[in-house]
Request: fold
Amino acid sequence: MEGFIMLFLLMTVSAIHIPTSVIEPSVDEVYVIEGDTATLVCSVKWPDRPMVIWTRVSDNNPLTVGTFVWTSDARISIQHSRKNDWNLLIRNVKLDDAGKYECQVNDKGISARGMVLLKVNVSAIQIPIPDFKPSAKEVEVTEGDTATLVCSVNWTGYLLVIWRRQFGVQIFNFEDFMLIPDSRISIQHAIGTNDWNLVIKDVNPDDAGKYACEVYGFSVWKTVLLKVNAVNESIRFNKKPSDVLVKKGHFARFECAATGRSTPTISWSKYGADDFPAAQERRMHKMSDSDEFFIMDVTVNDAGVYTCTATNADGSISTDVNLFVLYDEEDTNSTYIAVKDQYID
Reply:
């Protein structure tokens, strides 16, 4: 079955032309004013869930792999709010950001990619920036209660405010429309105001963390820390591992920890088995005095899905994490990424 990619650039300044869709492998030229936020929208129609990689053509290393942000540039993030959308977000665009960007998919021998040429213009116009009215920076609730995270913006005229989990890809709303299928979460917005409050009913410990309220188009945001006091928990994770992308020959580090009425023990497996290559070859190390799990001298065969399982007298819980391995093919100049049993160039 043929797969294809649709690629757009969404601008935050209405006077700038938004290009039509790009089907691989053609290239469009688009323009951004320095300091704006650019969203490169990669819409993938595929028979199953593909692994989407964003790269800058002039750089061999990827910017993002799936939802994992590989670059150290804090201005860059990935937005994955729906099954088919993998959007590269560049905040506070600089002149050095100009160049070609590529969204690509390789899956089961089928590949597709699309490119866009980003041009950055210097802005001599001072644009007023909205700011936030004072509100609580921390909200503390008890498990099962309702949490209201307040976001009120000083601005005359209409603004679009977006709520997200900070450092995550989950976007909760577009205007008053909710983008996530969670009936507990809603946006409290009175027409004619710029008050956009995030309301979470029946709060659970997994809801705890930082949330960001962002004024779309201005690269302005505030954060609110939600604290949840658990009630009679039998067992839960207080540290969940994040996906890791590592170069072949380096080490991979994961963190996983749990708490409960009795102290849980942590174990690791790969695809449900504990005799995975790193364990067989004694390259796996679990630190007894910390929550860290290491795989040393990573090989391509180490790529895949690992499971952290916490067990105590009340039962067990598990969470999955991906290990991606970046390696160079000796006979070519290409860089590849090992994902499970697939290899992506």
